[in-house]
Design a protein that fits this description.
Layout (H helix, E strand, L loop, with lengths): L1 E5 L10 H10 L3 E6 L11 H5 L6 E2 L2 E5 L9 H21 L7 E6 L7 H10 L3 E5 L5 H5 L6 H16 L3 E4 L2 H8 L5 E4 L24 E6 L9 H9 L6 E6 L5 H11 L1
Parallel strand pairs: 1-2, 1-5, 2-4, 5-6, 6-7, 7-8, 9-10
Antiparallel strand pairs: 3-4
Helix pairs in contact: 3-4
Length: 269
């Protein structure tokens, strides 16, 4: 089977879509990924990529097509143009470039869901079934982050977002909560695909670095350290508990907010 994956993020950026693409390829499928220039999470195009772009057009047996984008930077306005640039480049590629005949399209649904537009256009033009793996549930993510405060703007955003959801042939949700809520809103076929643990968690527990804290009460956060995770209150709690040496907090992951919280720890704790 020939599978096309649309994702704004891909190797050498560290996202689960890398594992999905590798899994498809290992089963004998011909996998192609359309993605942008690697710049997550620091907001700058990777230096090694700039030195040799051709080196990043292949990942194992996976072919990679990279469309130009504006780096995400460190501000909201830069991030906005980063999102827009991927959509515009993706649409241009979908409409004007010659394409192989693909059997399936998978869109990796991180924020923003509007990045799916190029993939949907290509799906409609070439009549290829398309699947969404939904990780960020728009527009509710925007509301939770405080980006959308007006109920009228939320209603408009919700209308257009659900038009996008309805355009997919299949939606895989990362959580059962997403699946239950979305299935009440649209008639599209919906199921779920949970994320999986890293191999490091399956290794011999004797080598686990947390073993020396076995007498402590441990709180572990593992995952993306970004705005959507809203970790600010958690770090305020850590600050309030800093004199209690019995409680230990551990963070495993990376993201756009990691440096911010590292600075907070150095300064406050």
């Amino acid at each position: 089977m020939k599978i096309l994956i649309f994702s704004q993020y891909f190797w050498p950026e560290n996202f689960r879509i890398n594992d999905i693409a590798t899994f498809f390829s290992s089963k004998g499928n011909q996998v192609t990924v359309i993605t942008g220039y690697p710049n997550y999470p620091n907001g700058k195009i990777f230096e090694n990529f700039n030195k040799d772009k051709k080196k990043y057009l292949k990942y194992k047996k996976i072919n990679i097509i990279r469309v130009p984008i504006i780096p995400r930077g460190t501000t909201r306005i830069q991030l906005f143009f980063n999102y827009i640039s991927f959509i515009i480049s993706g649409i241009f590629y979908a409409i004007f470039f010659k394409h192989k005949k693909y059997d399936k399209i998978l869109f990796y649904g991180t924020s923003p869901i509007t990045s799916a537009i190029p993939a949907l256009i290509l799906s409609k033009i070439k009549k290829i079934p398309i699947c969404l793996w939904l990780l960020d549930y728009w527009p509710y993510t925007l509301k939770d982050l405080g980006i959308i405060k007006s109920r009228y703007l939320f209603a408009v955003s919700k209308f257009f977002t659900f038009l996008i959801y309805k355009s997919f042939d299949l939606i895989l949700c990362q959580s059962k909560g997403f699946e239950n809520h979305l299935s009440k809103k649209i008639t599209t076929k919906i199921s779920h695909l949970y994320s999986w643990p890293e191999k490091v968690f399956l290794e011999d527990t004797k080598r686990n670095k947390l073993q020396k804290y076995k007498k402590n009460f441990k709180v572990l956060f593992a995952g993306n350290i970004g705005k959507a995770q809203n970790l600010e209150n958690l770090f305020k709690t850590i600050y309030l508990l800093k004199k209690n040496e019995h409680i230990k907090f551990f963070f495993i992951g990376d993201g756009s907010e990691k440096k911010k919280y590292e600075f907070f720890v150095k300064k406050k704790i």
